[in-house]
Amino acid sequence: xxxxxxxxxxxxxxxxxxxxxxxxxxxxxxxxxxxxxxxxxxxxxxxxxxxxxxxxxxxxxxxxxxxxxxxxxxxxxxxxxxxxxxxxxxxxxxxxxxxxxxxxxxxxxxxxxxxxxxxxxxxxxxxxxxxxxxxxxxxxxxxxxxxxxxxxxxxxxxxxxxxxxxxxxxxxxxxxxxxxxxxxxxxxxxxxxxxxxxxxxxxxxxxxxxxxxxxxxxxxxxxxxxxxxxxxxxxxxxxxxxxxxxxxxxxxxxxxxxxxxxxxxxxxxxxxxxxxxxxxxxxxxxxxxxxxxxxxxxxxxxxxxxxxxxxxxxxxxxxxxxxxxxxxxxxxxxxxxxxxxxxxxxxxxxxxxxxxxxxxxxxxxxxxxxxxxxxxxxxxxxxxxxxxxxxxxxxxxxxxxxxxxxxxxxxxxxxxxxxxxxxxxxxxxxxxxxxxxxxxxxxxxxxxxxxxxxxxxxxxxxxxxxxxxxxxxxxxxxxxxxxxxxxxxxxxxxxxxxxxxxxxxxxxxxxxxxxxxxxxxxxxxxxxxxxxxxxxxx
Length: 538
Fold this sequence. Notes:
Layout: H1 2-7, H2 12-23, H3 29-33, H4 39-64, H5 72-80, H6 82-112, H7 118-125, H8 128-147, H9 152-181, H10 202-205, H11 210-213, H12 230-259, H13 270-281, H14 287-306, H15 309-322, H16 337-351, H17 360-392, H18 408-427, H19 440-464, H20 480-513, H21 522-530
Helix pairs in contact: 2-12, 4-12, 4-17, 4-18, 5-6, 5-17, 6-7, 6-8, 6-14, 6-15, 6-16, 6-17, 6-19, 8-14, 8-16, 9-12, 9-13, 9-14, 13-14, 17-18, 17-19
């Protein structure tokens, strides 16, 4: 048995690559290419104050509650109570729902560039109705496939991650190196300052979306128990994975900045345009449709896998009595059909914002920012909750612990993550000056009203919950602060029962030994005799 366990342990580098695969996406590179050399500053800054703290904090929390359900609902709920725990998992689910239109917009643009006519492809990519149609068709197709419970989708997604992300990322970097090495003209000034001009507040607004580039690293915390000597090797995997991730982002962004002038960069099209320009330079334009198909396949395969993924968390919590029975309905395969339909309805409504936004690019940016705002709420609860749990549950075993002794390192790491998330949260509400987002009124309305609706909704649902919402088949464990009072009540009841039994026994002995015949009445004798058989409460 020991040998079997050892064979399934993950190596440091294996876990690092798993983290990279889970986090890296190329669709956001154009957003940072606008900044030129200073983009590297933003990547490194976000890695230090967000990526690494997320990985370490999530690892400690995942290891603490490895045998209990709930994920972020459990982590935040143990620290702050059920209401905020429900808020955390709610915004995580809604955030992923809003993410679908943005990632599928990128997929639609990729498909548009499959053709060989650049003018036609560009025109199609800019067509709002084409993009809307592709987003809805592909999303609902993915939803119906998810309802079928097709296991092969997971395998397709793994191949899509390799073909649609890892290989294109490496190819983009290699093409950039070849281009510069052979005397190609660089549109990026490599002598410009590494540090951005922070006196111009608008310059840092668009960079707030970089935090979403690193979102999802908390998923790696699930594997903390699968590593030998996790207290030593897990941090190694985190830092190696973070380094590889940052290098891919920095070098990939530079590769785009080299081949495309900053003024011509488009958030939705520049990745494809960059590849197209490089392929034209090496006289291999025939590769442009190939890379477009690969990128589209990567996006679509990822959506097929994740369209039902985040909803499983809210489904499990809902069965414990936090969601109405309507959201607990499944099909014959056990798939949460009603949640998927509601999720699909939300994706459809969000996609219809194409009608009011001035361009595909502005729609893409505003939904990306709303995704960041919501996801960061969950992260702020997670970071602060991890610090709170050091005091609320200080005696609980922590298979992986940030810092060998004391809470100083946890305060440092947790505070870094919280403050970084708070900074990005605030900046996300400000329209970026580099991109035309149309009316500021529309921008602020969508972000503020959208965020308020999403945040208020779980509190309304929680206040409306009824005992009848609890699925009798749910095995959701109580929180630690619910277990302790229950144990105390049980102990008190057991003590009272034992005392009653002792009294009854003593009274019976006195009755037998009494020469005067002063025995208890028949009723009292019966009541005393029944006392030891009263089951303890709770």
